[in-house]
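Exercise 7.
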Amino acid sequence: MRLERVHHIGIRVSEEAAAVAFYERFGFRTVYRDAHDPVLVLVNDTGVELNLVVNAVPNPEAKNPLMDAPVKLTGYTHIALEVESIEAAQAELMAWGIPITEGPRRLGAGMSLFIRDPDANVLELRQNLPPSS
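Solution. The predicted structure, written as tokens, is:
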């Protein structure tokens, strides 16, 4: 079997309106709402697809069970979305009032910063850097 690419990312959220408003800031728009399951499909202009699964229990402490708990469980910890400029992304996040939880910092061949959506799901914004000479 040959995998072609990541098709979409599923993110469990508790409040549809808050999650959609958050992801719309990054250029996502709702293109599908399932009639039987609490799923919304969002896509941006470059074809990145997110499936919001709207059935999480509200988390008033805004803690991520995979990242913030002392006992580390298995599971997907974050998604990384590529940006053209980490500096421009940082400035936009600051203008929007979205806290940066880590970074920007160099990780391997790129610069990364980390943020959280309204349900404390972790997103990494990443800029690839040209190879060093």
